[in-house]
Amino acid sequence: MSKTPFLTKEKAKEIIKSYPTPFHIYDEKGIRENAQKLNEAFSWNKGYKEYFAVKATPNPFLINILRDYGCGCDCSSMTELMLSKAIGATGDDIMFSSNDTPPDEFKYCNELGGIINLDDITHIEAVEKACGCLPKKMSCRYNPGGVFQISNSIMDNPGDAKYGMTHEQIFKAFEIMKSKGVEEFGIHSFLCSNTVTNDYYPLLAKMLFKLAVELKNKLKVNIAFINLSGGVGIPYTPDGQPNDIMKIGDGVRRAYEEILTPAGMGDVAIYTEMGRFMMGPYGALVTTAINEKHTHKEYIGVDACAANLMRPAIYGAYHHITVLGKENAACDHTYDITGSLCENCDKFAIDRNLPEIEMGDILYIHDTGAHGHSMGYNYNGKLRSAELLLKEDGSVELIRRAETPKDYFATLDCFDIYNKIISE
Prior knowledge:
- It is a single chain.
- The protein is of the alpha/beta class.
- It has helices at residues 9-16, 28-41, 60-67, 78-86, 103-112, 123-131, 167-179, 200-219, 245-260, 276-279, 311-315, 405-409, 416-422; strands at residues 23-27, 49-53, 72-75, 94-97, 115-118, 137-141, 148-150, 153-156, 184-188, 223-227, 269-272, 283-294, 298-302, 321-323, 333-338, 347-354, 362-365, 386-390, 396-400.
- α5 packs across α6 (123-131) and α8 (200-219) packs parallel to α9.
- The radius of gyration is 23 Å and the shape is globular.
- The N and C termini lie far apart (51 Å).
């Protein structure tokens, strides 16, 4: 597999005339095709619904594209709930999967009619106090502990994760919730992040399906849905093989027919909460080479920095880089691609083989459509960049303007210094 930009050098130069780099840009055509294919993969389940993980890309223009395909919103905070309400997502279109949750956020979700997914057994009492009583439909997040293995390889360590209830706790939670009037129950679990394998969802599904049957038989509760959460990832490296969502959907179907259907649970809805898979490959950070430095290493400085894309800086994540217009040139130069933050980790690539980069070249950083712009910050007084949408007809729409210094200083408006700064 190779990494092919959805933007040409010519198109990028045209866009830059109106919207200077750096900016994040998203591919509407790719997003729509991917959402359609996901629905096809789970079309065997009558109640299937994808709840897009708002935290991955909290832009209403992009979320509304997914809502054209029936997607709801997976929220984890008050502001994400507010965003969902603003675009018309209320009721069962909201799944509120939070942790360490303030009571007023439970109350607000309940007022919107959203489904509250409890992370901890103590939250039962917190929801009851915040809302006056428990909603009729609720969910609990399950953590089996230990490690989770796929093909004899450890993928993640749920035992070290702060999320979810133990096996004993989820039974106790369902028992308490039933006694307090809950009528429809859901089970949720998130065990692995960014898996690039077709086995993860089917294996997780088997675990949760067996748990659902056990809960139903022992407690006589109505399991309305099972939420496989996220974790289906994307290949960030050019040699990686993408997940086959059709195979994943079919694997879940086979587990469903093996476990739930014989137990008389053939009406249970399947939910997912994907962010990276839904949006990751369909976004890019576009930046311009503005400096070069020749010291102990060869450095190319760009006008973006870790404030625009922090994944490489905080945990060494790989993002492929294409020098637009030089896609077929030999990668015979080795560079560190850096931003301008006063931190040595502010590097998009280290010892990366790329074509010779000249000042003014446009660099396209791949796979930033999820956990890209959303993780931005203002360290060193850096301003958040614009977000653009490359529409299906080839036009470009501004879907979030770039921040200005006035935005940066706006929270100082209670001080005289604010007026002095913004008046200059």
